[in-house]
Amino acid sequence: METFKLNPPPPKAILHKVNEVFSFSTNSVLLQMEIDKWVNWNKLGRGGEEMGKRRRISPAKKVELLREHLKNGIPVSEICEEYGIHPNVFYRWEKEFFEGGIKTFTREKGSRDGIPEEKVLRGKIKKLNEVISWLSEENIKLKKKENGEI
């Protein structure tokens, strides 16, 4: 008797069905049909789309979908069904959206009057460069006075 090994192993319900068909008849056609069903079931996702090929939804579209739910009161289930997304994905987008909103209204550490830290540091660097250049000029002037040359 020939044994078949599927990688990854199918769920117990499928194995039970294959065993049932196999014990009913040794007809390899029926067994092959059950194996094909398993392979297709494993390969295809919701709506018959192949798993692994993810759709990329733009950030603008995500915001549009969130707006439909929040402003227009359209249920999450309707939006998810219409656009073929899982409700968990929708709720993750909502969470990320609100966390991003919090960041928008929160001042960064080290910022002054809402100016990001990088701009403050660039201003300090500019002032320090001016001081260094002034000190260098003064140093050169003093050396010229002492020696008459640089």
Summarize the structure.
This protein is mainly alpha-helical and 150 residues long. 67% of the residues lie in helices and 0% in strands.
For the termini, the CA-CA separation is 99 Å
Q: Which bin fits the share of residues in helices?
A: 55-70%
The ordered H/E elements are HHHHHH
Rg, alpha carbons = 34 Å
List the uncertain runs. 44-48
| Class inferred from helices and paired strands | mainly alpha
Description:
- This protein has about 150 residues and is mainly alpha-helical.
- The chain has 3 domains: about 1-55, no CATH class; about 60-105; about 110-150.
- The protein is about 65% helix and about 0% strand.
- The protein contains 6 helices and no strands.
- α1 packs antiparallel against α2.
- The longest helix is centred in the last third of the chain and has 31 residues, at about 115-145.
- It is elongated and about 110 Å long.
- It starts with 11 loop residues before the first helix and ends with a helix.
Give the secondary structure arrangement, pairings included.
Blueprint: H1 12-24, H2 28-43, H3 59-72, H4 76-83, H5 87-105, H6 117-147
Helix pairs in contact: 1-2
Top keywords for this entry?
mainly alpha, 6 helices, 3 domains, 150 residues
